[in-house]
């Protein structure tokens, strides 16, 4: 398993420790449900997971994957909310503080590219989550600069996170230095102090 050349696996590694303590967990882009399944397999049995996607099919695929694996997850299925809506409406669904969020951006491999994530809504959601993140909470963002919308999103996220105040957040940026510029990249954010 080559963890360092796979930004998703690296994101999972970073999130795994925090999942031992997290109560409120967000998968902002459910897709086929692989990230939601990872979260459910490592979460506390009383955690609550919220999985968002704008595609009904993605929500159905995610739900089906979790049902199929219901005996191999750590929490009851009822603790997972499958939400067919844009993540930018997150505040309609979660009013409490958030401990962990993951964004696996772009479009579904083999899916319709018109359903790709867009920089304006992604940034709006990241900002909402950062405002509502518990101290010691984590956000992982996997980005795909290899397509036009993904490249725009990558640049916008970079500009946004580099100016986050360091008294409130520690921000890491992972890019493989000996790979093509278009290789997937990872941004991770840890909340270390109040953010107003
Ligand atoms: C790369 S896929 C996610 C992969 C997924 N996490 C998995 O494990 O299979 C990106 C997903 O983001 C979804 N998406 C795009 N814009 C969105 C939005 N504004 N809110 C929520 N989901 C969105 C797409 O429909 C697509 O399913």
From TrEMBL:
* A Pfam short name: rRNA_methylase
Which GO-annotated molecular functions does the record name? methyltransferase activity
Entry keyword Methyltransferase: yes
Q: Which domain of life is it from?
A: Bacteria
Mind listing the UniProt keywords for this protein, alphabetically?
Methyltransferase, Transferase
CDD domains the UniProt entry points to: AdoMet_MTases
**A Gene Ontology BP annotation from the UniProt entry:** methylation
Q: Which PANTHER family match?
A: S-ADENOSYL-L-METHIONINE-DEPENDENT METHYLTRANSFERASES SUPERFAMILY PROTEIN (PTHR35276), TRNA (MNM(5)S(2)U34)-METHYLTRANSFERASE, CHLOROPLASTIC (PTHR35276:SF1)
What is the protein name given in its UniProt record? Class I SAM-dependent methyltransferase
The taxonomic lineage of its organism, from the top, reads: Bacteria, Bacillati, Bacillota, Negativicutes, Selenomonadales
């Amino acid at each position: 398993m080559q963890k360092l050349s796979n930004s998703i696996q690296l994101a999972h590694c970073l999130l795994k420790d925090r999942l031992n303590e997290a109560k409120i967990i967000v998968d902002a882009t459910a897709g086929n449900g692989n990230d939601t399944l990872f979260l459910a397999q490592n979460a506390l049995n009383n955690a609550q997971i919220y999985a968002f996607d704008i595609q009904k099919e993605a929500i159905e695929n995610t739900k089906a994957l979790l049902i199929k694996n219901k005996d191999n997850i750590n929490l009851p299925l009822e603790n997972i909310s499958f939400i067919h809506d844009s993540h930018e409406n997150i505040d309609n669904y979660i009013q409490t503080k958030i401990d962990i969020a993951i964004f696996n951006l772009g479009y579904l491999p083999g899916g319709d590219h018109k359903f790709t994530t867009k920089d304006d809504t992604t940034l709006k959601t990241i900002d909402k989550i950062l405002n509502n993140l518990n101290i010691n909470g984590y956000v992982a963002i996997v980005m795909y600069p290899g397509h036009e919308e993904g490249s725009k999103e990558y640049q916008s996220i970079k500009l946004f996170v580099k100016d986050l105040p360091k008294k409130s957040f520690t921000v890491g940026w992972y890019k493989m230095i000996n790979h093509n510029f278009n290789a997937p990249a990872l941004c991770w954010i840890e909340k270390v102090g109040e953010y107003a």
